[in-house]
TrEMBL record:
Regulates leading edge dynamics and cell motility in fibroblasts. May be involved in cytokinesis and signal transduction. One of its GO terms (cellular component) is stress fiber. Residues 4-68 form the DUF1899 domain. GO terms for biological process: actin filament organization; cell migration. Pfam families: DUF1899, WD40, WD40_4. It is found in: Cytoplasm, Cytoskeleton, Stress fiber. Its main location: cytoplasm. Keywords: Actin-binding, Coiled coil, Cytoplasm, Cytoskeleton, Phosphoprotein, Repeat, WD repeat. This is Coronin. The lineage of its organism: Eukaryota, Metazoa, Chordata, Craniata, Vertebrata. WD repeats lie at residues 77-111, 127-169, 171-212. Forms homooligomers, but does not form complexes with the other coronins. Interacts with Arp2/3 complex components, including ACTR2, ARPC1B and ARPC2. Binds actin. One of its GO terms (molecular function) is actin filament binding.
Length: 485
């Protein structure tokens, strides 16, 4: 019996391609702070990049279409008094972004719909509660206005941004610096990686550790841990011999890993980016010049190596586009924004397909921007999975609500511009059509039917053409004979 050598996978031939130079963002002074953050955050409307700034901390917010050279006087978001360490776009409002800084504060900003025209120094709300620098900020995946922050004071705070209050303090759980924090798919659990070499699964509302693993990776260098869609945990770290490793764990029993793989001996921390729709993990090492990607399945060895995208220049950071911001017509399954020393370069990951039809297997329903819960519901114990949308016909976003903070002594002197409806991707439930749209629909339908009938007649007459011609010839020939007689 012959064994199948090559494992069948629709992602086996995924290839990466950097865009042309005129589609990059040039002349950007990318931050030089020594912190293992991605330094970049992307959504379907903007790309945000942490930059070097004198006299405090700042980051750029650029509309995706504003490529080319960025002017040195281009306005920035510059409210922090210390360098910005991490930024994260709100998954439920493409105009809202949070930032954490060395000045021990978290700030939430509402970006004007068309981007910045003047420098922005006044946030919607300032969240103060950490005693040391804030290195991690992360929005809740399904609940509106719930934000997590982790600082070098070894504590995690979960905020209700709508009221500006710290609702949950997770203290005395981490004796050392927290390297990474990841929400589960529905946001009911947290997964953290700490400098004490432990990976912990935490129930934040009950303030208890569900399970933990000591020395998940024995090396002393930073680890990363993320939740997968099925509840398992994926980690990256270093072995005792300083070899880079990846591992897969069951979240309810972390005694032994499902699998462990060693990669190479580079020093760069591996930043994992995970696509829950396709179960593909992309590993981007800081200081590397490559992106490795793996498919996670239920078959051994469970984490299957797919391929590597390599360039000449090393990366200082990386941004990852949400699924609803991709071009489905080009079979694009991922897009990265690679930070160089002086520019940001988009990299497109594509599955080669000959058909022009929508590829259902590549684009299952994905998490949309509508929250499943309000903040108050989540804090009292309610859970909800992400509300899924279809990418088949393109996504049409609903009107984004302004972020309003109900809190005394919060600067609300200038309301942020309202977001208008911008076509980006289409939900399952289409909006109620207007009279004009119904007329257009009927007209398009009749036109399509007439076109189908015409095509059918063309094909029909094309098949009967020779027979009709022969019949005409016989008719003419018979008529001539009758006339002669």
């Amino acid at each position: 019996m012959l064994r199948r050598v090559v494992r069948q996978s629709k992602f086996r031939h995924v290839f990466g391609q950097a865009v042309r130079n005129d589609q990059c963002y040039d002349d950007i002074r990318v931050s030089r702070v020594t912190w293992d953050s991605s330094f970049c955050a992307v959504n379907p409307r903007f790309v945000a990049i942490i930059i070097d700034a004198s006299g405090g901390g700042a980051f750029l917010v650029l509309p995706l279409q504003k490529t080319g050279r960025i002017d040195k006087v281009y306005p920035t978001v510059c409210g922090h008094t210390g360098p910005v360490l991490d930024i994260d776009w709100c998954p439920h409002n493409d105009l809202v972004i949070a930032s954490g800084s060395e000045d021990c504060t978290v700030m939430v900003w509402q970006i004007p719909e068309n981007g910045l025209e003047t420098p922005m120094s006044v946030p919607v709300v300032v969240l103060e509660g950490h005693s040391k620098r804030v290195g991690i900020v992360s929005w809740h995946p399904t609940a509106r206005n719930v934000l997590l922050s982790a600082g070098c004071d070894n504590q995690i705070i979960i905020w209700n941004v709508g009221t500006g209050q710290a609702m949950i303090h997770l203290e005395d759980m981490h004796p050392d610096v927290i390297f990474s924090v990841s929400w589960s798919r529905n946001g009911s659990l947290l997964c953290t990686a700490c400098k004490d070499k432990k990976v912990r699964v935490i129930d934040p509302r009950k303030k208890k550790i569900v399970t933990e693993k000591d020395k998940a990776h024995e090396g002393a260098r930073p680890m990363r841990a993320i939740f997968l869609a099925d509840g398992n945990i994926f980690t990256t770290g270093f072995s005792r011999m300083s070899e880079r490793q990846l591992a897969l764990w069951k979240s309810d029993n972390m005694d032994e890993p499902i699998c462990v793989q060693e990669m190479d001996t580079s020093n760069g921390v591996l930043l994992p980016f995970y696509d829950p729709d396709t179960n593909v993990v992309y590993l981007c090492g800081k200081g590397d010049s490559s992106i490795r990607y793996f498919e996670i399945t239920d078959e051994a060895p469970f984490v299957h190596y797919l391929s590597t995208f390599s360039t000449k220049e090393p990366q200082r950071g990386m941004g990852y586009m949400p699924k609803r911001g991709l071009d489905v017509n080009k079979c694009e399954i991922a897009r990265f924004y690679k930070l160089h020393e002086r520019k940001c370069e988009p990299i497109i990951m594509t599955v080669p397909r000959k058909s022009d039809l929508f590829q259902d297997d590549l684009y299952p329903d994905t998490a949309g921007p509508d929250p499943a819960l309000e903040a108050e519901e989540w804090f009292v114990g309610k859970n909800g999975g992400p509300i899924l949308v279809s990418l088949k016909d393109g996504y049409v976003s609903t009107k984004s609500r302004d972020l309003k903070v109900v809190k005394t002594n919060v600067l609300e002197s200038k309301p942020a511009p309202k977001a208008e409806t911008i076509p980006t991707v289409q939900k399952h439930t289409a909006p109620q059509p207007s009279i004009v749209s119904v007329g257009d629909f009927i007209f398009d339908y009749i036109e399509k039917k007439l076109d189908d009938i015409y095509q059918s007649l063309v094909y029909f007459t094309a098949d009967l053409g020779p027979i009709i011609i022969r019949f005409i010839r016989l008719f003419i020939f018979g008529s001539v004979i009758v006339i002669v007689i």
